[in-house]
Design brief:
Helix content: 25-40%
CATH class: Alpha Beta
Strand order of the largest sheet: 1-2-3-4-5
Distance between the termini: 40 Å
Radius of gyration: 15 Å
CATH superfamily: Gcn5-related N-acetyltransferase (GNAT)
Oligomer: single chain
C-alpha cells in the first residue's frame, strides 16, 4: 500500500481520519477546526504528514511528524506525534507501513531517532512499536503544563 507525503489535495481525507483519531483519544473537535489545523501544517510545512491509501486510493491512515533537536544526542530528531489507522483497515499492515515510512523519512533527513508517546491503554500500538524496535522509556516521565489561550 502506498504511503506518500500529504498535499493540499489530501485535506478532506486527512480531516476525516484526524477527526476519528481525536475521538479515539476522547478529545473530539469540530471538523472545521481540524481542517484549519491541518491546512496550516501543510501550508507552513512545520510538520510532515504522511498518508496511506489502499490500491483503490481510499485513505486508510496517517502519521504526523514534527522536527525537534535531541539535546542529549546533539542531533536532529523527529517526534512521531500522531498515528491513526481507520478502523476498517486495522490489522492489515497499514500502521506498520506508516511507521516504516516515518522511519524512512527520519533517516533520509539525517535524524538520530524518532520519539513517540502513546496512551497506556493503547496495547495494540505498543506491540507494534516494540515489534518495530522502539524501546519503552523506563527512566523518564512525561509532564504537561496546560496554558490558557
Amino acid at each position: 500500500m502506498p504511503v506518500t507525503a500529504a498535499v493540499a489535495a489530501d485535506l478532506a481525507d486527512l480531516t476525516r481520519l484526524f477527526a476519528a483519531y481525536l475521538c479515539f483519544y476522547e478529545v473530539p473537535r469540530p471538523a472545521v477546526q481540524i481542517q484549519r489545523f491541518l491546512a496550516a501544517r501543510l501550508q507552513q510545512g512545520d510538520s510532515q504528514l504522511l498518508i496511506a491509501r489502499d490500491a483503490l486510493g481510499h485513505a486508510q491512515g496517517f502519521v504526523q511528524l514534527y522536527p525537534l533537536q535531541s539535546s542529549l544526542a546533539l542531533a536532529p530528531a523527529w517526534l512521531l506525534s500522531d498515528l491513526y489507522v481507520d478502523e476498517a483497515a486495522r490489522r492489515c499492515g497499514v500502521g506498520e507501513a506508516l511507521m516504516n515510512a516515518a522511519r524512512t523519512h527520519a533517516e533520509a533527513s539525517g535524524a538520530c531517532g524518532l520519539q513517540l508517546e502513546t496512551a497506556r491503554t493503547n496495547l495494540a500500538g505498543q506491540r507494534l512499536y516494540e515489534r518495530l524496535g522502539y524501546i519503552r522509556d523506563e527512566q523518564f516521565f512525561t509532564y504537561w503544563l496546560p496554558l490558557s489561550g
